[in-house]
Design a protein that fits this description.
globular, 6 helices, binds protoporphyrin IX containing FE, 63% helix
Length: 124
Amino acid sequence: MLQKLHERLGEEGLTNLVAAFYRRVRTDDVIGPLYPPNDWEQAEKRLRDFLIYRFGGSDRYIQERGHPRLRGRHLPFSIGVAERDRWLDLMGQAMQETEVPEDLAPVMAEFFAQVADMMRNREE
Ligand code: HEM
């Protein structure tokens, strides 16, 4: 099912989704400060290309970044329940703004929730 998302949303839909997400992240008081301040464009591209790849589109992400190793790549950032929940909240808002079709939204939300929970790396 995840592999079908790119077919339905296209690169354009996923590009718009990630743009709407990062527009919120940049000024967010909880997770905004975790992101390298001068690398927003590239950070946006990395998440966009990852989702395009994971949802069944181009494998540009893999060509440029190699194996995703997402947990390892998030270890430099302190991620607990608050950061996880905020990431998911902002992504939920971005999905609403870009009008992700209602049959796809729960599938994506479930995927995001699972991955976000795996990124937690702070004892609480
Ligand atoms: C749980 C809350 C999360 C926080 C606070 C968080 C934060 C971050 C930060 C600060 C970066 C570095 C920005 C950059 O230079 O690329 C990053 C990278 C990235 N994140 Fe997250 N993230 C979270 C969850 C997720 C989830 C759920 C996904 C996927 C569904 C994801 C996918 C990525 C990807 C693909 C990268 C770039 C990896 C690379 O190629 O270097 N993140 N994240």
